[in-house]
Amino acid sequence: MRSAIYSRFGKPPEVLVLEEKALPEPAAGEVRIRMTMAAIHNHDLLTVSGQYGVKPDLPAVAGTEAAGIVDAVGEGVTHLKVGQRVAASGKGTWAEFYLAQAAAAVPLPDSISDEAGAQLISMPLSALTLLDFICVEKGSWIVQNAANGAVGKALAMFAKPRGINVVNLVRRNEAVNELTDLGIENVVSTSEQGWQERVQALTAGKPIQAAIDGVGGTASGELLSLLGENGLLVSFGLMSGQPMQLSASDVVFKQAVIKGFWLAKIAPTLTPEKMRSLIGEIVQAVAAGHVSLTVSEVFGLDDVARAAAAAAEPGRKGKVLIRP
Prior knowledge:
The protein is an alpha/beta fold. It folds into 2 domains: 2-120 and 293-323, Medium-chain alcohol dehydrogenases, catalytic domain (Quinone Oxidoreductase, Chain A, domain 1), CATH 3.90.180; 123-265, NAD(P)-binding Rossmann-like Domain (Rossmann fold), CATH 3.40.50. It is 32% helix and 27% strand. Helix 8 (218-226) links the parallel strand 12 (208-213) and strand 13 (227-235). The mean pLDDT is 94. InterPro entries: ADH-like_C, ADH-like_N, ER, GroES-like_sf, NAD(P)-bd_dom_sf. GO terms for molecular function: NADPH binding; oxidoreductase activity, acting on NAD(P)H. Keywords: NADP, Oxidoreductase. It holds the Pfam family ADH_N.
């Protein structure tokens, strides 16, 4: 089978190559999936470059999430059948076939496309779990930057029916229209003069209880400055590539709390019942069209280097996907 492999860490377009590998056999509790569409996430690119929180043994097949058709089942798997359409995270999804834990594979209804199924779990689950993590009540105000990213868009969409008010910060004026076209409200471009006053006007002076930072650098301090007393600043990404730059006076005098969020650490602490509830909410919301999972480009597997380069470009309106 054809697989996107890297034998050293480095810039993804430079180190990713297409190679033939033996078809993997599912172990007990696993399924083999014939990939129909795979997502390129930021953490995939960071993993290939060697900058993520975990480093796989090399050589490794890239990719962590995809949609496809169950091709074979391992011992003990009874709830999934060969030929069934599923979305599943796994190792090495940028390949014609990949293995996944059967318990984590999500059956896909016909109303969810392969394009949406390929990105159904990681980012929406991060968004929902983040909403639980910050633990704010209905009617509260929160603020997030990188609001036009996959997690940001999903978080804004999931927050609305919960009655949580979100100020959505973007760095380009064009992104304001991109989000409003998706039905996302309270979008503010930080490229505009006086954007902080715009945020204050939106909240009508009510305190912002939590801020979600996916950028780092000076953007972290900007979020902290918007928080009310005893506010929470959550770091879950570092798009700027720069360390968080925070005002000590804001931390001290606001008695702010700063936490890190990594789904890989949070997910194992969730009960099976809670995980099923979250996944069920995601599937329902996407199937009903209440949450949109957008796509910017789709590349063939044999064009994986160019796909990785496209995924790293700023200003994308959706996920870059790979198909066989």
